[in-house]
Design a protein that fits this description.
A hairpin with a 3-residue loop joins strand 8 and strand 9. With 279 residues, the chain is mainly β. The chain is rod-shaped. Helix content is 6%, strand content 26%. It contains 3 helices and 15 strands.
């Protein structure tokens, strides 16, 4: 039935779930689950799975489970390996849910394989050979039992498939309203009469200014030469020809060519025009 140890009386342990099913020792407390069948009673399981050491307790209902695969001769067998009583010396998987696979429908010789050991697994373990049959181990009471569920899709109360969304319906067509009232046309805009162009600033005749302070107070003019005998000129363009100053009475001083008058000071007739004059 399988490998053991050289000791005659130890360790105290039992066969796995597949061998127990084949032997039929606990058949009255062993159930068969067949996923994808029509009834929930046959396709699902939810309850306590006790260790075989608890088989003699009257309150114990299940110590072994076969999950039958109708499309294959290889099935899944499940037990709780409670480390107590006749299993107190178990070496591997103590107080865990043991999952094995075996062929032959559990009725004849076949090699069994341990595929999973579970303490608890609320997320679920997909059983080998099945597309949507899941084992859940919700709780574990050491040396006693584990509370488990075997569910296939939504048949056993597990997760339901995503809801199907109905195609959107077209929005209702509103009833036509009365004839719309069109707004009255607005009058054509009135174009304002053009304004007159700005009046240009008056042109200053700098040449007509003969007092230096009056000349320099005008931004368009600048005084050139001696404060008394110089002349006022424009700051832009060619300076206008200054009006000749009124003739001075003869003084008997030398005549200065740059001013055309007598000069009792220093007469400069050469150099820049602005430097010439009587000083």
């Amino acid at each position: 039935m399988g490998y053991s140890y050289n000791n005659e009386s130890t360790p105290r342990m039992c066969f796995n779930a597949a061998k127990n099913f084949q032997l039929g020792w606990y058949s009255d407390k062993t159930i068969t689950v067949t996923p994808n069948t029509a009834t929930v009673e046959e396709a699902c399981f939810a309850g306590d799975l006790h260790g075989t050491a608890k088989y003699g307790d009257a309150a114990v209902e299940t110590v072994g489970i076969k999950v039958n695969n109708p499309s294959s001769s290889t099935d899944v067998y499940i037990m709780f390996n409670a480390k107590t009583g006749i299993q107190s010396g178990t070496v591997e998987g103590g107080n865990q849910v043991m999952v094995v696979t075996a062929g032959g429908e559990g009725n004849g010789y076949a090699e069994s394989t341990l595929v999973q050991k579970i303490t608890t697994n609320t997320a679920g373990y997909l059983l080998p050979g099945f597309s949507n049959t899941v084992l859940y181990v919700d709780s574990n009471t050491p040396n006693s039992h584990a509370s488990i569920r075997i569910e296939t899709g939504s048949l056993c109360g597990g997760p339901t498939p995503n809801p199907t969304t109905a195609p959107p319906t077209n929005a209702p067509t509103p009833q036509p309203t009365g004839t719309p009232t069109l707004p009255q046309p607005t009058s054509s805009p009135t174009t304002a009469a053009p304004t007159n162009p700005p009046t240009p600033s008056p042109t200053v005749n700098c040449g007509g200014i003969f007092v230096k302070s009056d000349c320099n107070n005008n931004a368009a003019c600048v005084w050139n030469g001696n404060p008394k005998t110089g002349f006022c000129a424009s700051t832009t363009g060619s300076p206008p020809s200054p009006s000749p100053p009124p003739p001075s009475p003869p003084t008997g001083c030398p005549f200065c060519a740059s001013t055309g008058q007598e000069c009792c000071g220093t007469c400069i007739d050469s150099g820049k025009p602005s430097s010439r004059g009587c000083f």
